[in-house]
Specification:
The protein is α+β, with helices and mostly antiparallel strands. It has a single domain, classed as Aminopeptidase (3-Layer(aba) Sandwich), CATH 3.40.630.30. Strands 1-2-3-4-5-7-6 form a seven-stranded mixed beta sheet, with helices on both faces. The protein is globular.
């Protein structure tokens, strides 16, 4: 089973379905006030690349890379429940990091939630370390901030 990752339109039916799945997964753990996600429309802005992972043509996950001046930010990492544990999230992050390097970014940052234990473990395994709030974010008990130097 081949996994392919490519930039796609977040407003496509598959893009919207993945973002809806991401939103539903977050709402199981956090209130709307505790989520700092981008809407599908916001993911179409200049400087944002929306990656979709497909296994044998079937969408399994997504992630977005947002150019933020002197750093890049990870948004919307999500893998459908039945594909978790297969390496899809790691492959999406590897592709995102390669794109960030190619664009000249030296630092990737992200905001996640401490209740997303699998995501936090993946980020640590990929070399991300905790840091304080950045950009538009303020300290919040439902937020965990991380970064990686490329």
């Amino acid at each position: 089973m081949t996994l392919a990752i490519a930039i796609e339109d977040p407003l496509s039916p598959d893009g919207l379905a993945l973002i809806e799945g991401s939103e539903a997964a977050l709402r199981e753990l956090y209130t709307p006030e505790e989520c700092f996600t981008f809407s599908p429309r916001e993911l179409t802005a200049p400087g944002i690349s929306f990656f979709v992972a497909r296994r044998n043509g079937r969408p399994e996950g997504c992630v977005a890379l947002c150019a933020c001046g002197d750093y890049a930010e990870v948004k919307r990492l999500f893998v459908i429940p039945e594909a978790r544990g297969t390496g899809t999230a790691r492959a999406l992050m590897t592709r995102l990091e390669a794109a960030a390097r190619a664009a000249g970014h030296k630092i990737i940052r992200l905001e996640t939630g401490p209740a997303l234990t699998a995501a936090v473990a993946l980020y640590h395994a990929l070399g991300y370390s905790r840091r304080g709030p950045f950009g538009p974010y303020a300290a919040h008990p439902a937020s965990l901030f991380m970064e990686k130097h490329l």
